[in-house]
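Entry type: protein chain
Record version: 2
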Amino acid sequence: MSLSVRLILMTVVLLFCPPKVQAEKLVLMTSWTAQAQFAGYYVAYEKGFYKAVGLDIEITHPTLSTTPKITLQHEQPDAIMLSLMSAMDLISQGIPLVNIFQDSMNSSNLLISRRDNDPLKMKGKKMAVFNADPNYLAYIINKKEKLNYDIIRCTSHINLFLSGAIDATMATSYNEYLQLLQSGYKMGKESVYRFSEHGYNIQEQGVYVMRSYYQNQTKVCQKFASATRQGWEWVAAHPEEALEIVMKYVRSDHAVTNLTLQRRMLQEVLNLQLDADSKKREFRVRRDMVEKANRLLLECGLLKRAVSFEELTVP
């Protein structure tokens, strides 16, 4: 076979059978066990949105003993989910994190008291907070409103609340609040304090990486953000189909939950994604909320230094 013929054949092979490009790997750890809160990420994976942009995404879930700080110290995974205030706290401690995707636009935090009492009038009582991730708003309101709550850190505070062992509990509108409703517990309007309605509307969950990772893998982070947004937009348009995908992950992770709770969770998570002003899903960190978070955290001694919008976000 002549050289010219071999070159022609090689050209044809390259045109119609291009070499496979190695997908770029990114390991993402969610903030909790499998549930509808992470539907957009599951969908982006299952529907091939990540694969379509050349990403090999691995989604992992933490254990009760796993904290973001521990995972960051061991440089695994590549990306983690954190609340805005948690990320700011870690940055102020010298951990250079940067947000590459924001799926929460509003605060889901609630303070719920027993027996239809106003939670801001139960001074000196016992309040439960989730142990795995610091609930900054609980400490902020405790100090600013001079509530003098005895704050109890625990992993399963719903049962403690139902049993009467504690007087009030922090909760999220997409999870513990729904668990209480599903249990049949009656809550009067006065007993539920919604932080978002009282000047404490601070964004929550976003995806963060070390700044060095972003600098070295900028395109990977940008592709991840684009495909994840596509995943969430698909979820909003096809909630029931998305729920089927969520339950697949729930079963695989052996998470203790049920379909009804996950359906209501997904509805609430999608509502929380709507920006308070534009009423659209913007998937961005708001500068004004960073400024508000700085002010509240610094006033209550919960932040070592102010964290600027620029060091928290990417161009």
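Comment: The longest helix spans residues 218-237.
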